[in-house]
Amino acid sequence: MIIKTAPDKERARSLFNMVKERETFTYSIDIEKFPTIVAESYYETIKELMTALSLYDGFKAIGENAHKDLIDYMSNYKELTQNEIFLIDDLRIRRNKSLYEGRKIEQSYVSNNKDKLISIINKLKEIIQIRLR
């Protein structure tokens, strides 16, 4: 569920700054050896950026389906295509299966989607940077 809150620019800025550290870590991991960890890290990076945007806008995702609701909220941003939103949701599902069921994420999935995921991350970062100026 998405609820209305007061805009929290400081928390958005803090999350944005954390993303920089996570990106450095993610890009240093060997995809061939640790594809699941890389995929999970891409997801966490994207989730933190989406959370930062929603907080900046004065919204917060809560409850059991918070991550799915947050992804759906991103439809408000015309900078993201429906295919990109679908990819984020697909990554969420795979990450959840990994985290809660112990399923590995295939190296081919990560390699085939790496450029798209990095593009999504960069788009989200650009949107936030414009707002935080």
Q: Which structural class fits the helix and strand makeup?
A: mainly alpha
How is the biggest beta sheet arranged? Answer: 2 strands, antiparallel
Rg from alpha-carbon coordinates: 14 Å
**Percent helix range:** over 70%
Percent of sequence in beta strands: under 5%
Mean pLDDT: 96
Catalogue the unreliable spans: none
Shape label: globular
- Looking across the biggest beta sheet, what order are the strands in? 1-2
* Number of DSSP helical runs: 5
Order of helices and strands: EHHEHHH
How many β strands by DSSP? 2
Distance between the termini: 29 Å
Describe this structure as you would to a colleague:
- The protein has helices at residues 9-28, 35-57, 66-73, 82-101, 107-132, and strands at 2-4, 59-61.
- Helix content is 73%, strand content 5%.
- It starts with a strand and ends with a helix.
- It contains five helices and two strands, in the order βααβααα.
- 28% of the residues are buried.
- Strands 1-2 form a two-stranded antiparallel sheet.
- With 133 residues, it is mainly alpha-helical.
- Helix 1 (9-28) packs antiparallel against helix 2 and helix 2 crosses helix 4 (82-101).
